[in-house]
Design a protein that fits this description.
InterPro entries: Dimeric_a/b-barrel, L-rhamnose_mutarotase, Rham/fucose_mutarotase
Structural class: alpha+beta
CATH architecture: 2-Layer Sandwich
CATH topology: Alpha-Beta Plaits
Order of helices and strands: EHHEEHHE
Number of domains: 1
Number of strands: 4
Helix content: 25-40%
Pfam family, one: rhaM
GO molecular function: L-rhamnose mutarotase activity
GO biological process, one term: rhamnose catabolic process
Strand order of the largest sheet: 2-3-1-4
EC number: 5.1.3.32
């Protein structure tokens, strides 16, 4: 199992809408994530910086990267683009975080 961590940014006035759109997350998107080996996926919020910290366990980096090419992921990016910092293709601006400590 590979642990992935990354951060993104939500616009300060859009946090409540961001949370609302995730509860519940689209069933088809959830199924796609699971079918691509994703488990234990969480997103946390830092109110001082408006940063979102994502954590997910994935079975392979290849499967994780393939999610971005699915139609449902592209639809989700479009749906969320007005709430957060995005790239030209509406994917979230995301910075991978390097693991420096792990305790099991």
């Amino acid at each position: 199992m590979i642990r992935k961590a990354f951060k993104m940014k939500v616009y300060p006035d859009q946090l409540e809408e961001y949370k609302r759109r995730h509860n519940p997350i689209w069933t088809e998107l959830k199924d796609t994530l699971k079918n691509h080996g994703v488990s234990n996926y969480s997103i946390f919020y830092d109110k001082e910086t408006n940063s979102l910290f994502g954590y997910a366990e994935v079975s392979s980096n290849k499967q994780w990267e393939e999610i971005a090419n699915t139609p449902i992921c592209r639809q989700w990016w479009d749906h969320m683009s007005e709430l957060m910092e995005t790239n030209a293709d509406n994917s979230p601006v995301s910075i991978d975080l390097q693991e420096v400590f792990y305790m099991s």
